[in-house]
Amino acid sequence: MTGIIVVNKPSGITSFDVIRNLRKILKEKKMGHTGTLDPMATGVLIICIGKATRLAQSIENQYKKYVAEFQLGYQTDTYDKMGKIINISDIKSAPKEELEKVLKKFSGKIKQIPPMYSALKKDGKKLYELARQGIEIEREAREINIKSIEVVDIRENTIKIKCDVSKGTYIRTLVNDIGLSLGSYGTLTSLERISVGDITINNSYTLDEIEAFSSGNNYEFLKSVEEIFQYERYDILNDKDFLLFKNGNTLVTTNKENNLYKIYFKNEFVGLGSIENNRLKGYKYF
């Protein structure tokens, strides 16, 4: 089995729990996800199966949209409601005008320090393992890009925002930093990933739906790689050029814009490539 499944992850389980469930349902071992969601979070989790796992990184690198809800007035050690409260503030609300002004600081390319409660590693140990031992280490700030961020709703001390962010962005940290910029603390209370690139939650399936479909030998939830990557098609026309492409060489093209492309040979999908200055270069081979 080869393809991609867009799962609507429920709250309360890990991303690997989703894979564990799918392995039981589909009787397939080779699969991986394309960007972890915290156990509390819900929404789009893309699972690659079989040969499609080769393209997982290309999916993971795409921008992701989230709807996040957080509360002002307290901070936890994990920056979300699952953690232990470590700080409290008397400031539990903010006018919309002030909030929008603060959000502008977090638009575009910014530096973000990853949270201690994360799966990032230091000397082979995951940061959350160190955090559980009461150990906090210095983390280097990383550049992220927040393409857009806006207020959706404000109700007393609860704020809902929508954002479109690059790979590596921690929404828990973003909420914490927004809270500090408001002179208070912010704690994430719910998080839904509503899209990854062009893939939206409207095209996702719950684990129960996947199990029901597969039990009836209906695999409409399994998408081809071509369906997931909404790039223009480029056809390699002869054996010589295909061999050059497979070996990592560039090909001369004409009348093609600089962009990303799905590459085909003899009507079969063979990988992803980019064209720049009339030269085609493969970057993922299928």
What do you see in this structure?
Helix content is 23%, strand content 38%. The protein is an alpha+beta fold. It folds into three domains: 3-62 and 198-226, Pseudouridine synthase, CATH 3.30.2350; 64-194, 2-Layer Sandwich (Pseudouridine synthase); 231-285, Archaeosine Trna-guanine Transglycosylase, Chain: A, domain 4, CATH 2.30.130.10. Strands 1, 2, 3, 4, 7, 10, 11, 12, 13 and 14 form a ten-stranded mixed beta sheet that branches. It has a five-stranded mixed beta sheet with strand order 15-17-18-19-16. A hairpin with a 2-residue loop joins β12 and β13. It is globular, with a radius of gyration of 22 Å. The chain starts with a strand and ends with a strand.
How is this structure best summarized?
With 286 residues, the protein is α+β, with helices and mostly antiparallel strands.
